[in-house]
Design brief:
Elements lengths: L4 H14 L3 H12 L11 H13 L8
């Protein structure tokens, strides 16, 4: 079976859309919780609060303290 370039592009786009990492999903939920679409929208104490929330809420498999 021969695959066309357009079919390959379609498959790659699908994979990219579907393969958000667990961290990306967690980060997106944190953004939603703070009612922003980007951390750049947060200023001062809110920005610190956001990053503290993310840091506290996420433990990577290979993370060390």
């Amino acid at each position: 079976m021969k695959m066309t370039k357009s079919k390959l592009r379609e498959i790659i786009k699908y994979i990219i859309r579907e393969e958000k990492t667990a961290y990306q999903k967690f980060f997106d939920k944190a953004l939603a919780k703070f009612k922003v679409t980007s951390p750049k929208q947060l200023k001062g104490d809110k920005e610190k609060e956001f990053y503290d929330y993310v840091d506290k809420g996420w433990k990577a498999d290979n993370e060390t303290d």
